[in-house]
Amino acid sequence: MRHRTPALVGRDDELRSAEQMLAAARAGRGGTMFVTGDGGIGKSRLAAAAADMAFAADMSLLRGRGSAVGLTMPFRSLTEALLSLVRSGDPIDVTELGPYRHALGRLIPDWADGPAGPGPGSLVVLAEAVLRLTALAGRDRGCLIVLDDMQDADAETVAVVEYLIDNLGQQSTMLLCTVRDGPCAALDLARAAEQRGLAAVQTLLPLGPGDIRALAASCLDCPPADVPGPLVDSLVADSAGNPLLAEELLAAIVNSGQLVHESGCWTLPDVIRTSVPEALARAVAGRVEQLGPEARDLLSVGAVLGRRFPLALLHAVSGLDDRALLNHLHGEDAGRLVAPDEQTPDWYAFQHPLLGEAVLQLLAPGHRVVLARRAADAIAATYPGLPDEWCQVSASLRLQAQEPGAAARHYLEAGRRALAQGAASSAVDLLDRTRELLDGDPDQLAHATAIEALVSALAEAGLMERALDLANRLDVAPDGPDRRRRAELHTRLAWAANLAGRTADGLSQVALARAALGPDAPDEATAPIDVVEAHVMLDLPGPERFTVIETMTRRAAAVAEAVPLPEVACQAWQLLGALSRRRDLAEATACLERARAIAVRHHLPIWEIHALVRLGQDEALRNGGIALLEQTRQAALRCGAVTAGYHADTNIALHTVLHGDFAAAGPLIDRTLGATTRLKMIETTQLLLLSRAILGAHQGRRREMNDAIAEFRRWDGDQDLHAPRVHGLARAFCALLEEDRERAAAELARARRPGDANVSAHLSGEHGLGPLLRVLAGPGDDDPAPGARAGPAAALRWNRQFALLAQAILAGRAGRADDATAAFGEALLAAAPYATARHLCLRLGGEAALRDGWGDPVAWLRAAEEHFHAVGVVPVSSACRALLRQAGAVVNQRRTGAEDLPRELRAAGVTVREYEVLRLLVERLGNREIAGRLHLSPRTVEKHVASLIAKTGQANRIVLGEFAGEFVS
C-alpha cells in the first residue's frame, strides 16, 4: 500500500476556486486565497496542488513556510520564498527593481550592492519591493506565491502579506496562504481581508465517508468498492475526517495485520477504535518502535530541532557518516515519517508537522533535556557565531535544556539582529523573552543591557510609551549602562519622538540625554544631541527659535567634522542648508555642498543622495533646470535610496508642471503618488497632491484643482504650512487663467507667510506675481512692493519673470518705451523654461504695451492667443482676440473647437461660444462677470444663456448651471 495518497481527495470545489484565481492572475487580476483548517486537514496538499497547476501553466512560483522553532523567525517564510525563486533559475533581471533591489537585500544579501540605509517606513519599503518583484517575476506569465503555515509567521511577515493583499489586484500575482485554525495574527488578517472583499478564505472541513473511502482506495491501490465497509466506518470515526489521521490509522491497521490482502482483495477481521490524539500517537509510536536505536535517535533529535533539520547537524550530533545517515533516513519505516526537503538541499523534514510533534511527545522529559543540550552543542560547533536562524534555534534548545542564562544571551543577540534587519515587532518579542529569562538573575548589567536593547526596539516599533517608561528605569538602575550609552539611548528616543511628532517628549529625552552626560561632557558626546534637539525645536512656535537652532547646529557641525562623526555632520549641514535658505540661496547651496562632500569622503551614499536632492531642488528654483534632479533620481535608483528617489520625483513633478509640460507631469505625479501612498510617505504624498492641484490650475481646470486640494485636506496636512502652494501656485494662477485678477490678488494675499523658512513660500507670489498684479491694478507708487526684490526669493527664476514684467509695464506707463521693451525682453528670457507662464506674460505685457504704446503688442498677443487656444484655456485666448480686435488686427475665427464639445451638447446644437459661456455658469457668475471673462457684452452673454436653456431643455439659469457641472471639468 501507499502511505500517502497521491490524489487530493474531497477538495474539488476548493481546487476549482484556486484554478480560477490562477487564471485571473495570469490575466492581470491578482488576488489572495487563505486556506484554513485543523492540522492534517489538507491545507498544504491543496497548496501543493495549486503550485502544480501554476507550474503546468508556466507561472513563476515562490514558496515559503513559517518557522516553528521557538519564537517566530523574522521574515522566515518570505526569505524562503525569494530563495525558491532564485533557485528556480527563472531569468529575472532584478536590476529592473531599481532601488527596491537593495531593500530585498535584507532578505537576499546578494541583491544588495551596499547598504540601503534605515528610515521610517522601511518595512513598507520592503513590502513594496516584494510586490514589485512578484510583478517582475510574473510578467507575461503570472506568478503564484505560496506561504505555508502562516500561523507561525512573525509580525513583520504578516504586515508584508497584508500590504500584498491590498495591492495585488492590478498585477499578475496570486497569493496563497495556509493557516492552521487557532488564535493567531494571520488568521485575524484572513478574516479581515475576507470582510473587505480582498481575499477568499477556504476553510477545509473534515472528509465525509465517501471521501474517506476514496482516500483509502488510493492508498490501498484498489477500487473504492473494494474497501471494506467496516474499515471506512472505523477510519471515519477515529480520524474525525482528518486525512492525515486517516492515512496514519490505515497504515497502522495494515502494519498490525488486521487488514490483509488476500486473493486480490482486502479483508478486515476486526478494528479497535481509539481517540484521535491517541490514534496518532499510537500510529507514530508503532513506527518509531520498529526503527533501530540509531535511526530512532536521529528522528528524536530531528523532532527536538523542529519540523526541518539539516543533514550536517544530524552528522554532528550522531557522529555517523553520510552513508549511514542516509540509509537510516531512507529506510522504509523512517521514510514514512521524514523525507528530503524539496526546497532546501541537504535538509530533511517530517512528512507533516503533526508527525514531528507526535515524535516529540514520545520522549521522556529527561531524555528531551539531554537531546536538546546535545543539539545545541552540535549547532555551536557546526555553525560558529550562530548565523542566520541558528541563534534563535540555539536559544530555544538551551531553554529546553534548562539553561535559561544561555537561552537569554541567545535571545538577546537574536533580538538585536532582528532589530538591525528592520523587524522591530519580532525584536520586541525576543527581547521581552530575554527579560523574562533574566528575571531573578543576579547579573544586573545583563538586565540593563536587555532593557537598553528593548527600548530601541520599542521605539522602532512605535511603542513610545513603553520605550519611555523603560528608559526612565535605566536612569535609576544602579548597574545600568554607563553615562555615554544612556545618553545615546535618550538621544535615539528623542529622534523617534521627533519623527512621531511628539515635541514635548522629544525635548524631555534631550534633557535626559544631557543630564546623563553631566555638565562636563566632551563636545563629541553632545554634538549628536545638539542636532536632534535642533530638529525637535523646529516644531516650536516663534521666529526667534531659528537663531538658537542655527547656533546649536553650527556648533554640532564643527565638532562632528573634527572628531569625525560623519553622519552627524551630514545631518547638521543639511539642516543648516534649510535654515540659511531664508536669507541667502548661495549660502544654502554651500552648506549642502559641504554635506555632500562629507558624505562622499566617508562613503555614505544615502546621505550624498539626500544632499543632492536638496541641491537639485535649489537649482530648479534658481534656474528652472531639472537636470540635477534627474541625475539624482538615477543615482537613487542605483544605490537603493528609495525615499530620496521619491523626493526627487516629487520635485521634478512640480517643476515639470511649472514648465508647462502637462503631458509628462500628469503620469509622473500619478505614478509617484501611487507608490508614496502605499509606502505611507505622508509629507511626500501631500506635496504630490498639491502638485496635482497646481497641474489642474495651470491648465485652467478649477474642478481638477479643487478635487486635488480636497484630497490633500483629507491627508490632514499642515494647511498653513502649505498655503503658499495652495494659494500662490494653484488658486491664484488658476484665477489669472480665468481672467479674474481680483480673485488672483485675494488668493495671493492668503498665500503670504512672513518669515517662513520653507522654500515653497518663496513661490507664493509675494516676490513676483503679487507685485505684477499690483502694477496691473493701476497707477500707483513706482515700486508696488518695497523690498519685494530683496532677499533670496527675488532671485528665483519663477519670480523673476513676473517682477521683470512689472518693471516693463511701469516703464511703459512712465513713457520710457525703450526701457519697457528691454525689460520685457528680459522677462521673456527669464520665462523661457515656463511655457504657460511665458505666454501669460505675453498676454499681460501685450495689453499694457497696446495701451501705453511700446513694444510689439500685436505679435505678442497673437503668440499668446495661439498657445492658449491650443491648450484649451478659453478665457485667455478670448481676451487676446478681443485685444487684437481693439488693435485693429485681423483676428482668426476660432470655431474649430467643435470637436472638443461633449457629444450630447454637440447633438443639441450648442456652439463653441455657447459652450464657453456654459463652462463659466458652473461658477454661478453673472452676465457681467462672464462678459468680462470672455470679452463680450453682457447683452450677448444674456442671448447665449437663453439659447442654452432652449437647446438643453433646462428650466432656468440655476438648473442650467447645475446641468453644466456634468460636462465641465
Descriptive report:
It is a single chain. The protein has 969 residues and is mainly alpha-helical. Helix 17 runs antiparallel to helix 18, helix 30 runs antiparallel to helix 31 and helix 35 (741-751) packs antiparallel against helix 36.
**How many β-strands, per DSSP?**
10
* Low-confidence parts: 115-121, 755-760
Q: Hey, roughly how much beta strand do the residues contain?
A: under 5%
Helix content: 55-70%
Give the neighbour order of strands across the main sheet.
Answer: 2-3-4-1-5
Count of helix runs: 46
Terminal CA distance reads: 73 Å
- Provide the residue-averaged pLDDT: 84
Class of secondary structure makeup: mainly alpha
* Largest sheet features: 5 strands, parallel
Radius of gyration: 36 Å
What form results from the Cα inertia axes? flat
Set down the secondary structure blueprint.
Layout: H1 12-26, E1 31-37, H2 43-56, E2 60-65, H3 76-88, H4 100-104, H5 122-137, E3 143-148, H6 155-167, E4 173-180, H7 185-195, E5 199-203, H8 209-220, H9 229-239, H10 243-255, E6 260-262, E7 265-267, H11 276-289, H12 293-305, E8 308-310, H13 311-318, H14 322-329, E9 338-340, E10 347-350, H15 353-361, H16 365-382, H17 390-400, H18 404-420, H19 424-438, H20 444-460, H21 464-476, H22 483-499, H23 503-517, H24 523-537, H25 545-562, H26 566-580, H27 585-601, H28 605-623, H29 627-639, H30 642-658, H31 662-678, H32 682-697, H33 702-714, H34 723-737, H35 741-751, H36 769-776, H37 797-813, H38 817-830, H39 835-852, H40 857-870, H41 874-886, H42 903-907, H43 912-921, H44 927-934, H45 938-952, H46 957-964
Parallel strand pairs: 1-4, 1-5, 2-3, 3-4
Antiparallel strand pairs: 6-7, 8-10, 9-10
